[in-house]
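hi got a favour to ask and not much time before my train. below you get a single protein, a line of residues and a line of whole numbers that encode the local backbone shape. could you go over both lines and see whether the tokens make sense for that sequence. a few lines back from you is plenty, here it is:
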Amino acid sequence: MNPTTLFVVIVLFLQGTAFAEKPQKPNLDQLISKSDQKKMGLHKLSSHERELLRAYIVNLLLKFIQQENSSTGSVIESKIDGSFEGWDGETIVKLWNGQIWQQDEYYYTYHYSYTPKVLIYKSGGSYKMKVDGIDKAIRVKRLK
């Protein structure tokens, strides 16, 4: 398995979409063995610090995927054209590159930001959009 495919599988697992119907947030025990955590001193972290580390790992993997695939065009990086107020179930997003995408799975979260960065990548037979500031990548379909 090549490194890019491996990281996509890991990211999907982290988001709970590849191996479970209900999205789950893996804890550090699922990501890093307890013995490795002890070696790194992670067992001393508070629950809040552990959550920050988990979110950091997910974002780092997504950035790696972006860098690995930027030459192949399989990852789209852009910004939302204007304000973004989160996902409402049918959110339509217009990007700076002129593309228009629509949310294609139900998920609701409120998160206001102005022209946040987005990362769109192929996941199985569909596309996922990761918006800066939101941990979960959402399945989307291209309208234009």
